[in-house]
Automatic annotation (TrEMBL):
In the presence of manganese, represses expression of mntH and mntS. Up-regulates expression of mntP. It comes from the Bacteria. Belongs to the DtxR/MntR family. Residues 5-66 form the HTH dtxR-type domain. This is Transcriptional regulator MntR.
Amino acid sequence: MVAPLSPSQEDYLETIYQIGLKKRAVRSKDIARSMKVTRPSVTGALQSLAEKGLIQYEPYEFITLTPKGLIAARRVVRRHTVMHDFLTKVLGICRAEAEEQACRLEHAISGDLTRRLALFVEFLESCPEGIEAWAERFNCFRVGRRAECVCEASTLHAAAPKSADSKSK
């Protein structure tokens, strides 16, 4: 089991993973350029990740994720993707803002919350009306036109669990 990673270490793993998808060879200068950091900062981070067994790293050589590093990187990417989808598809946040927020939130959400958010988005996408209709009603509610956006009472009653009092009637 890998010791907990800092948000910065997770960002480096995510960056290495993303660069590796585009280019087979990942170099420290590519990481520095992508993350907008100095090469000495990259070197320190790479040494730390190598000590944790997450990457193969030798100065002036290509950087590769180890099997443990690949698993950790995919988890970070998954949390980022799920959070980005939730922010854009459900809350209607613009892509640029969602990207920025997903980068922050991906380090704080648990695996369980990630699964639940992904399932919630999937649930909304599977609704007959589609996620767009739901998101439109939510936006209407959010901007203060709540009376126009109330869910149908019949839908709420049909979905609500029966109380002990109503079952005995």
